[in-house]
Specification:
The structure holds two protein chains of two kinds. In chain A, the strands form two sheets. In chain A, strands 2, 4, 5, 6, 9, 10 and 11 form a seven-stranded mixed sheet that branches. Chain A is an all-beta fold. Chain A is built from no helices and eleven strands. In chain B, strands 2, 4, 5, 9, 10 and 11 form a six-stranded mixed sheet that branches. A five-stranded antiparallel sheet of chain B has the order 1-3-8-7-6, with no helix packed on it. In chain B, a hairpin with a 6-residue loop joins β9 and β10. Classes of the chains: A mainly beta, B mainly beta. Chains A and B meet through β5 and β10 of A and β4, β5 and β9 of B.
Chain lengths: ~110, ~110
């Protein structure tokens, strides 16, 4: 069975802290994605990676960076957390063919920045 | 940027009734997908329909696609309490990534 896991379900951080969100998939997928989800705005793509050490900016990369050192793991980094980064963060993975095939999502991390 | 938009934003129905929601999009696509999200959880893939298909079924789900109108519909028949969730359409334009709409929240009343 396909599985994407995220390191935390809930996280509370202070403004200015460095925050790491981790995502692991066990399907040997090439593509991995980080989204944020806010009410009324749907899912917005932050970054995605199509291979180890490869990354591309999504629609809203500002204030975020990513790391993919191993195929199964994709990390999202908030260099200096701000209150407007309070959100639900969703990780997903998919087979190649760009990002157009079915994406498998993790359970999400709800981040609160105080 | 959001490519797909779902309509209505929210829907409340009685158990056993059918639920229909629509998705409109702006540019040509390779495929369109529907996902479900239960409260506070990740998204689960429901169905994918390719641009050369007009209708697809999966259990109690029926999806249609009209590429001339740039629209799709998702029908859930004989709804159950467990169908209470948000439903998102995701379009695959000719570049590399899916674009998700803001979703339709469906509430099924017992």
């Amino acid at each position: 069975d396909v599985k994407v896991t995220q390191s935390s379900r809930y996280l509370v951080k202070r403004t200015g802290e460095k925050v790491f969100l981790e995502c692991v998939q066990d399907m040997d997928h090439e593509n991995m994605f980080w989204y944020r989800q806010d009410p009324g705005l749907g899912l917005r793509l932050i970054y995605f990676s199509y291979d180890v050490k490869m990354k591309e900016k999504g629609d809203i990369p500002e204030g975020y960076s990513v790391s993919r050192e191993k195929k199964e793991r994709f990390s999202l980094i908030l260099e200096s957390a701000s209150t407007n980064q309070t959100s639900m963060y969703l990780c997903a993975s998919s087979l190649p063919s760009g990002g157009q095939e079915t994406q498998y999502f993790g359970p999400g991390t709800r981040l609160l920045v105080l | 940027s959001q490519q797909g938009e779902e309509d209505p934003q929210a829907l409340s129905i009685q158990e056993g009734e059918n639920a229909t929601m629509n998705c409109s999009y702006k540019t040509s696509i390779n495929n369109l997908q529907w996902y479900r999200q239960n409260s506070g959880r990740g998204l689960v893939h429901l169905i994918l329909i390719r641009s050369n298909e007009r209708e697809k079924h999966s259990g109690r789900l029926r999806v249609t696609l009209d590429t001339s109108k740039k629209s799709s519909s998702l029908l859930i028949t004989a709804s159950r309490a467990a169908d209470t969730a948000s439903y998102f359409c995701a379009t695959a334009p000719n570049d590399y990534k899916l674009s998700f709409g803001a979703g339709t929240t469906v509430t099924v009343r017992a």
